[in-house]
Amino acid sequence: MSPTTLVSPTESPQPPGVVRHLRIRYLILIDLILALNAVLLAILLRLESVDAALTYLRSGGWTLLFVAPSVRFFIYYRLNLYNRFWRYASMHDLHTIFLASVIAPIGIAFFNFGLQPRLGLPYSESGSVWLLEAICSMVLLAGSRFLMRSLSQFKRRKQARPATDVKATLVVGAGDAGAMVMHEILRDPGTDLKVVGFVDDNVDKHGGVLLGAPVLGGRERIPELVRQYAVSQIIIAMPTAPGKVIREVMGMCERVNISPRVVPSLHAIVDGSMSLSQLRPVDLEDLLRRDSIHTDNGAVRNLIVGRTVLVTGGGGSIGSELCRQILQCEPAELIVLGHGENSIFEIEQELRTRQQMGRLTTKITTCIADIRMAERIRTVFFQHRPEIVFHAAAHKHVPLMEANPGEAITNNIVGTQNVLNAALATNLDHFVMISSDKAVNPTSVMGATKRGAEMLVLDAARRSGKCYVAVRFGNVLGSRGSVVLTFKQQIAAGGPVTVTHPEVERFFMTIPEAVQLVLQAAAFGKGGEIFMLDMGEPVRILDLARDLIRLSGLKEGGDIDIEFTGMRPGEKMYEDLFLPGEDYRTTGHPKVRIAVNAGRYVPRDLHEQVLELGRAAQSDQRDRILQLLRRLVPEYGPVVPPILLPEPPRVERAPRQPEFALTQLNGGTTLASETGPG
């Protein structure tokens, strides 16, 4: 016998199946007794006396005592009421009970009026008895099942070890998420949390009671309620609230020296499966949270479902998230192409797990390939014949590309040209390139090469008439090389946290949000457009560093210092959003804009210039590369780093309106000086 099998010598172990069958037999017996009692109770309620009920039974109603329990047992069995864990009974189970109670009277009526007269058996002519029987059966059945749940919870509470230190808890948010938190606390007998109340900004909820706990007012009362009820834990249950609200709540919690916890994001609790173990500390994404995005999932799914989709750079931050969201749209085949074998292996394993869990039939194919190798990319396209390509492969690190401009050229420009040539050769329908806001008035090699890649996409759209588009957006939280990860590493090492300049600002999005909008833009594309995602309000990098220090439980100046290092080559103080001369219009989505005339500014000798750039990059002629890059992208020009002074006081500025200088393109098109849209 295995050491882990502990059985008394006088006992024989019961197999799990035996226990289960015994439980089902007891349930069947209980249901038959309840069904019989429901018939008797219905007759008594209808006739209002025992004598009248006995007369009714003797005159033919006795058949209901056999027909009703038999029919109900058959219906209950077909609806799987005996395979459920009633200790976890929910509204879904109640709906099934209601359905069984509606179907059963139809079966009883069929036997009573259809079969019994044909067989010469007496039958009941009173329809009101059936109606009352259905109501009584539903009440008795639901009551028995939820009694099982109550007894199970009582037993668990009795067996659970009581918490020695109960924490008075305040829940911020009296909506669906707050109700989930309260429900989980009530269901877990071993928790040390005791909810003293809710706060919510909806005044209609003030004074109400949610699952036994009162709604005590708005969030401005948090400091007062903490003192009044000796609160030691605060849970933020507002998964859709904007970052501004989370910041305000966080500030109130800091004033009373409480580190709040937050419920998971909306997509993690949409199925109602949240548990207390999922409560987590507030993180940076919560503080930067923007309004929830609503996309036309139908249009995106119609674009992808049943088609062959290829993602370049599939192992990167954006590429891997593209693969995750594309897989949910059930393409016929998803081809994940990348240069780094480890990252491709990791995303492949994750996708296959998701595929199994979701029972998806999509074929997942991985390709290790370098987009700079034209023949290799061409072979991949001819072998797999993709119908849609999302081109996310690129070098994105600004300082690294400043030091290695040849690599930026060969990967971002020549690599994009190779992918486009293969797409055109195989008559590809849809091509979506992931660009960057740094392509607008670029001051870095990286930004200039992304602008050059945009030109290649627009040129391919013009030549083919196909839906080839580019999508621009800014920094994403959590991506490789993100400043957020750098700050976290510096904080973990004890500091200092390094910021280039106190007034540097950047736009930020979460990776899932950015990819969601990329897919939406792809569904809008007709060909030759550049889409620009609404990045919201810019974030000062210094504020971001301070938030991370605070979220780590440390204090700036006391526990960890912030140092200013000066601007690095190619960096801007502020990111521009609009290119001179481009005509930006709204689309069917409020967070996606379109440059309808972007292809007008592509030079006529684009491919000759790219060929020259490629040659210069192969021989690593730095000066020649920069010269040719300025010729290809006339608006490209390195910025002079500002003099680093002590941090000035924070002053709210009006939104900047970038002014564009006169620009001469190689093709002879002159752009008039203008003020870009704000």
List how many beta strands DSSP finds: 26
Query: Domains counted in the coordinates: how many?
Result: 3
Distance linking N and C termini: 77 Å
Question: For the CA atoms, what is the radius of gyration?
Answer: 33 Å
Helix amount, in percent? 40-55%
**Pairing-aware structural class of the strands and helices?**
alpha/beta
Quaternary status: single chain
Can you identify the CATH superfamily of the largest domain?
A: NAD(P)-binding Rossmann-like Domain
Could you tell me the CATH topology label of the largest domain.
Rossmann fold
How would you sum up this structure in a few lines?
With about 675 residues, the chain is α/β, with parallel strands linked by helices.
Write the SSE topology:
Blueprint: H1 16-47, H2 50-58, H3 64-78, H4 91-118, H5 127-159, E1 167-172, H6 176-187, E2 193-199, E3 209-210, E4 213-214, H7 222-229, E5 233-236, H8 243-255, E6 261-262, H9 266-269, E7 280-281, H10 284-287, H11 297-304, E8 308-312, H12 317-328, E9 333-338, H13 341-358, E10 363-368, H14 374-384, E11 388-391, H15 398-403, H16 405-425, E12 430-434, H17 445-464, E13 467-472, E14 475-477, H18 483-492, E15 497-499, E16 505-506, E17 508-510, H19 511-524, E18 530-533, E19 539-540, H20 541-551, E20 562-564, E21 584-586, E22 592-595, H21 606-618, H22 622-632, E23 659-660, E24 663-664, E25 670-671, E26 674-675
Parallel strand pairs: 1-2, 1-5, 5-6, 8-9, 8-11, 9-10, 11-12, 12-13, 13-18, 14-17, 15-20
Antiparallel strand pairs: 3-4, 6-7, 16-19, 18-22, 21-22, 23-26, 24-25
